[in-house]
Amino acid sequence: MSVWRRKPINLILAESSDEGKAALSRTMSMYDLIALGVGAIIGTGIFVLTGVAAAKYAGPGVIVSFIIAGTAAGLAALVYAELASLVPVAGSAYTYAYASLGEILAWIIGWNLVLEYVVAAGAVSIGWGSYFVDLLKSFRVILPDSFSRSPLEGGVINLPPIMITFLMTWIATRGTRHSAQATKSIVAIKLLVILVFIIWGATRVNPSNWIPFAPFGIGGIMRGAAIVFFAYIGFDAVSTAAEEVKNPARDLPRGIIGSLAISTILYILVAAVLTGMLSYTRLNTSSPVSAAFLAAGIRGASAFLAVGALAGLTSVLLACIYAQSRIFFAMARDGLLPPVFAVIHKKYKTPYIDTLLVGLVVALLGGFLPIGMVAELANIGTLSAFLVVSIGVIVLRKTMPDLPRPFKVPWMPVVPLAAIGFAVFLIFNLPRLTWIRFFIWMALGLIIYFSYGYRRSRLATIEEQRATVVLENLVPSPARKPDQEDRE
């Protein structure tokens, strides 16, 4: 049996039909998708990573870092849009790799997507907790460090991230419609807050804070781009919803590209205002937006922004939990994970066991790890997924040119090759320690695949059945002794 076996697209589409036993219900519109994408993208980058990337890597040049990372994400978004319209099922990059490059790479991508979503959700929950603590400070309420910091930061347990994670997990288990409604409401709140921050903060900008613009040099800006790329992972969450969209061929490309375009513009504007309001040396905090207004002595505005940040991070957390549970569902349906992860709730029609497991792991990450360690791990998982998907779209164009493609990547193969180049460049700009952790994670994933998924996948079962039929046809039946009837 080959680890390079590919899953036929007609089989993938058959499994996702509404009549299938393990299929999800199609209830989402294009506006739900855009809300999901904006909800997943806008949050961590603006409310958490902007300050850390400016203080430690790029200075005010973090504005350019966002442009570079946004360009890389935009190229990848075009690739995702084609594959999402071609294979509109749950699983995102994992499913695309299975159809184009083979099972082993599909497993690797699925395993790396755990880094993308579970670890990203952990980072988001930590940022949420930091803003929650800042909001309490605005009302003169101080939460003890023992219950608002991780053990590695001198605390005992970080409780706020755990509380919000459990709440979002409960919402996610109750169905796509409930999640979509909650996401749209939260997104509306955070967009209002972001616009207020941009307009209000622009009046407090001091141009001297932009000098020097690149205190860590061009290399610092590039490293900043590799770090803030984490902020753009949300559009991938749109493709994970493919199996629950009413008109996926039309709406998936629009949802992916539209949500990314809106988010990129807002990221650049916020980065410019934030670094203009406060010196980059003072932005090394997981709540830089409210910290900037607190430093300016505007307590009421800080509380208002903290509420917006909480809303923004809440929607990202919900989207990450939603997306990862769908990827686990797709992998279990293929036999690469135990069948319990393919069970759908009878009432809510959601993979609730996956959702509960994801929520539990995210809560543990948020409660016991610092944000810097968590964000770096999420980035390398995302970039590796983008790299393989970009290769996959080129392979499918060559091997299956006649497949109907409602959306096609323009300037083929220039765009996917550029996406590959950006992904490789950003990967090599990540810290060395991130690489070490990544290789450990990969080794663990390969052990799980070869000890479980390799022989239990659905394609392995099909191969074994075919091999049995061939052997039965080749090997003659054993000769039997003549009985009395034969002798007569």
UniProtKB/TrEMBL annotation:
Residues passing through the membrane, by range: 33-55, 62-81, 117-136, 156-173, 185-202, 214-235, 256-280, 300-323, 352-371, 377-397, 409-428, 434-452
UniProt keyword terms in alphabetical order: Membrane, Transmembrane, Transmembrane helix, Transport
Gene3D superfamilies found in the cross-reference section: Amino acid/polyamine transporter I
Location in the cell: Membrane
InterPro entries in alphabetical order: AA/rel_permease1
GO molecular function, one term: amino acid transmembrane transporter activity
Bilayer disposition of the protein: Multi-pass membrane protein
Keyword Ribonucleoprotein: no
Record has Transmembrane helix as a keyword: yes
Pfam families: AA_permease_2 (PF13520)
Cellular compartments per GO CC: membrane
PANTHER family noted in UniProt: CATIONIC AMINO ACID TRANSPORTER 4 (PTHR43243:SF4), INNER MEMBRANE TRANSPORTER YGJI-RELATED (PTHR43243)
Protein name: Amino acid permease
